[in-house]
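Standup notes
- DV: blocked on the single-chain target, sequence here:
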Amino acid sequence: MGTQGKRQQPWEKKTEKEPFKYTEEYIQDVLNGFFAPNSVKYNIDGLYVFDWESDKLLETKSGYIYEFEIKISKSDFKNDFKHKKDKHIILENKPDGDKYLPRYYEAIKRAGESFHKYADENPYYLATNHKRPNYFYYAVPTGLIGENEVPDYAGLIYVNEYDGIVVVKKAPCLHKEKYSDEQLNLGEKFYYNMVTWKNRAKKNEKKTKEVENKLLLELTARGHEKTYEELQEELNKTKWELDIERRNAVRYSKMWIEDSNFNKTFRRILYKEFPDTDWRAIDEKAYQKYRDTYLKERRDDPDSLNVNAPTALE
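- DV (later): unblocked, structure below
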């Protein structure tokens, strides 16, 4: 007679695993593992190092810059070529391509032909006079785009929901020039980026405080302000107690290791100085007493190397 599986009851809902939601921040974090940490000089997210904002930049200690363009949807990937034409012309850097970037012709349309004599040799509008990374990759969720959809000057990386990275297509070396920090003006860019994130942090802190005050007002109106304050106090007390426990655990662990190491060293001294004594048969209290005496003598005279026979063992 075969066994039957448990029949699902009408009130029992079948739960299905929700699909993993990829975000730009998640892929940025995963890409931190593209190189070993000790081989990276700079790890930059969302900064205008070149003529465009880079989702992720890694500069190795050898001076090569890897840029990662993160896309989490197919439409986002296609729009990159539609709305960032200048960027892709700079990356491709065709020697026989157009002299000017699309931005030049757009400026001509807005300002008229008279603009040409002012912008003809302006580096901003020339196609082959711009800095670019040494390597350029697209980083996308696994299977979002295929290798054949990526341009020749770019590589392709798949990122999965388990923090895994798979290099589907290795990026070609666009050039071997190494830019200095001064050439890229990184000092000034890092400073303003720091100021921007600092202001964002202050703004978020202010919003958090406003939400907390609003919650407290609502609880007060319902007569629960005392409960809220008690819970807050209990939470702070628990955090404080856990912090003390953590500190004690670290301290006692260090003390135990130091004591264990000392005992090993001390026993080697005893075996060497008193080879005729069977230390394994010695009472633990007598051993501890001699150990304490030895430590006291060492504190009083650190340069002394003489070990006298303990009275407890004579």
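- Follow-up: DSSP finds nine helices and six strands in the chain.
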